[in-house]
């Protein structure tokens, strides 16, 4: 072989060896360092033996014989697939959930369980079916928080051994079967119709009560007005009688004489020439003649206008005419506008407690009249 060729071959061999050595060094250095992210931890095994947990940052490890397994230390979300279950009252339901977990001990999660996510998901599925099976249908639909708490409690003990903490469990949907849903919709519709009928009946009852109350108050006001009218009419009749009596008293002797002369005139129109006159009539004629001619006819008693005695004046109320007239005027000043406002308020249902019952109104008026009658009797 040519020495030059041999020398060239040896040079290429040395270069190749150098390159291989450099490559080996680079690979060795690469295998000696492990970078761990801030949100995770890694377990280190050397020749299959667990050594330690690698913390976030750059870690030195034995090259070529080491393996690492990452564990996310953040809260993780696991979807629990939809599960079918039979409730305690034999109603089929389907439900799904979400489980929030966090790795608390990466060593246990690596050594105690094969795949902690799959293990927690399968355990949550069985627990969800068991919890729904121990409850009645209405409870599964209404007590969502209670279901969540039971599932979490059932998951806590086994997941603690795996170094996993179950932070929360949320049941997303619990759906009964279609037949049960239709029955529930019919029940809800019937309940709404029942409530509507009750509200309508209560409204009609209240309207009837309000109308009856308004009619009652209107009748009270009407009765009060009629009673006042009757009182005024009776007082007017009493005053008219008193005034007529006073007028008769004021007629005196002249009125009696004139009436007697009219009687004599009627007697003189008859055909008889003999008349039998009572003594009172004879005295009346003499009295009237004296009044006309001024002659000395004997005066006789019994024709003078006489005053009423005390009992008669008290019975007729001659001394209380002014007081009675004042009472009539005061009673006549009833506020008609106020009565109309009260009637309108009753009609609209705004009368409230201001309108009294008929018995109260009549009793009050009787009480007001009683003192006046007592004063008259005294």
Strand count = 8
Low-confidence parts:
295-306, 372-378
Helices and strands: which structural class?
alpha+beta
Shape call: rod-shaped
Largest sheet entry: 3 strands, antiparallel
Radius of gyration, whole Å:
62 Å
Termini, distance in Å?
A: 174 Å
Mean of all residue-level pLDDT scores: 75
- The strand order across the widest sheet is 3-2-5
Share of helical residues = 55-70%
**SSE series:** HEEEEEEEHHHHEHHHHHH
Number of helices: 11
What proportion strand?
15-25%
Q: Which short descriptors sum up this protein?
A:
378 residues, alpha+beta, three-stranded antiparallel sheet, 11 helices
Structure report:
There is one protein chain. By secondary structure, the chain is an alpha+beta fold. It is about 60% helix and about 15% strand. The protein contains 11 helices and 8 strands. The chain has helices spanning about 5-30, 105-110, 115-135, 135-140, 145-160, 180-270, 280-295, 310-315, 320-330, 335-350, 360-375; strands at about 35, 40-45, 50-55, 55-60, 65-70, 75-85, 90-105, 165-175. It has a 3-stranded antiparallel beta sheet with strand order 3-2-5. Strands 6-7-8 form a 3-stranded antiparallel beta sheet. Strands 1-4 form a two-stranded antiparallel ribbon. Strand 2 (about 40-45) and strand 3 (about 50-55) form a beta hairpin. Helix 3 (about 115-135) runs antiparallel to helix 5. The radius of gyration is 62 Å and the shape is rod-shaped. Residues about 295-305 and about 370-378 have low confidence and may be disordered.
